[in-house]
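## Example pair
The file below holds two records. Each record gives the amino-acid sequence first, followed by its structure token line.
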Amino acid sequence: MRMPKPSSQRVGPPSSELLQEAAALCCPASTVAAVQGESEEEALLARHGRTFHFAARFLPGELRPSFVTLYAFFRTLDDLVDERDPAESPQAIAGELRAWRAWFLESCRGPAPREPLGARLARLIEHYGLPTTLFLDFLEGLHWDLWPREFASFERLRAYCYRVAGTVGLALAHVLGATSPGALSAAEGLGIAMQLTNILRDVGGDLRKGRLYLPLEDLARFGLSRSHLLQLLEAGQGPDAPFRALMRYQVARAHLYYAQSLPGVWLLPPDRRLPILLAGRLYRRILHAIEQQSYDVLRARAHTTLSEKLREAMLALTLDRLWRRGEQLADPSLEVELTDEA
């Protein structure tokens, strides 16, 4: 990555215009979800991907349909596995996953298991030259989720995160026109960072579903076990000291993935940086929420407040404008680390 030149100018306070733009970005009433006649895929994005929904408002208009189609595919298949009816057998869902796999192996020819989603996805894959291996890896990750499984090591957990989220980042990078080795590495890393965040915020909910994603080697390192976590959950008294230490370690690792991947935003074409920077910063803010609630992810799911979204939107807009004006700081990592305390 080319290192930018240092700047001798100071960053002033945000203008009222910038604050208004940030407020509009975070205000649900102003999002495109309110537009009548939106597609089913757009509605799916609005219902389930609130962060991505309003971040995607800043994509160039010609790219938004492709983004929405990609999200619809990944979300539909993820919900098929993660939100399945308890009465539905894993074998039946595995059958649809196999049907999708066969469709991809046949170069997306013929009707897909779900139409018109498959037809739209096939056109997108051909237009952008998306590697079908990304979708095959994604399907493999979903198959892992069909049956309760544990991860012995972080290496195994990272492999899972790549399959269910790193692949999403890579597919989106191709659509955004960022296919250099550095850009692809950053896209994969940001997807993994977001998946790690989801895992950490959902520890309690996943345990209730019989799932545990935290690496067993990490639990052992802090003197914990699955049965101990279940005891904490059932007692309803929140985390103890060893659990907080474990979560502090996990959160620090997720922060590292953001620190390594977010600078890759500047490898995107200028008109495509803001939505990715904003989505990444908002997801990273969830880690701060976990820290602020003393790592109690057993009784409460961490989330960001409207004021936090507003601050992140304002800072993302500021960073994007600084870069567009040629206002360059000494280190690209500093740009994505700018906070409201700066």
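Second record, same layout:
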Amino acid sequence: MPLDFSCSITIPIYKSKPDYVEVASFKQAVKILNKYPFILLCPENLNVSIYEKILKHSNINYQFRFLDKKWFKGRNTYSSLFFQDFFYDLLETKFFLIYQLDAWVFRDELEYWCKKNYAFIGAPVFLSGGFYPFLNGGLSLRRVSKMKLAIKLLKYSIDVNMICGKFSFFEYKQIFEKKEWQKMPAEDHYFSFFASRFLDNYKIPKFEDSIKFSIESENDKLFNLNKKQLPFGVHAFERMEPWFWQKFVPVKFRLSNFKPIDDKSHKINLILPRFTKNKSLYIWSAGLEGRYIFNELKNANIIGFLDGNFETWGRDCMGCKIFNPKEVLSDFKSLASSLYVIVGSFKYSKEIVKELKSYGLKKNKDFFVPFEGVKKNDQ
């Protein structure tokens, strides 16, 4: 008997006035995936006129599903929604594509991915220098029957605990049993990892297939691994390494994601002093800003990253090692002639500058702050 490839585009919305990037993301879904039914999940009494106006001009079969506001209070309650049986009864299709409005699809490949018959497929998750064995749910294709089976698993007595990243199987089980929905960890970790370890025929893609479906971090590396082919879609294109996606997503990116703009009073200064040419450069912060700076200065002599988060020490970031700042800077006096630090965090720049000075480094002579002149409300 042939499989039924019916699939719905399931979009969670919680704003009556989405910003221009979210509108662009929504319009792209409508443009590319218009032959599928759209189900929009929203809190009760939300004004949906902006979304409805776009949908009415597309001849799409769509429905708004108004749910209790408690499911939209935050990340934890949103995650809890995926553990409710009633949620899957709303869908009426074999598969559903979760499409959050920070996603972007490049072409329609849904029938191809449905035929793969995965229980869950999404972008690989990169955290603190390595890829984790779970997948991101922001742009993810899931099979309804497998999600229901994964929920039933939490009702059984299972003695074997399992830990992945920050979460454990028992944590999900206890919260589910107590219905403490405000404490529910990330649902995609459970459905893409834990459920697959306990259930037979719960098919999860290999890494090589996942990056053909979607990517959201280490994008340049994964793009090359995928033979420089764009995936079906991307999640968090403006938040995660936006400098990469500017080439492919026709949306004006915001300064909050560190795209330099023409207004010199706001521009991020990445022109290093000439005397740093022969110095060993370190970027303090392996976060988004630090990786942006690395990308812009990739031809410079960057040795690695410094970061105050001990969980990142020794890990890889953009092909470089992340160091404990103390390990590098405690011998600053003997290295002063060869070492130079770039402050790679806007939010914590004052704290980083204070710590650099405590090691004897002097501003501009020994370290550089590229975010001066960038206003907080622009960030």
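Notes on the second record: The chain has two domains: 7-245, 274-378. Residues 255-267, 374-379 have pLDDT under 50 and may be disordered.
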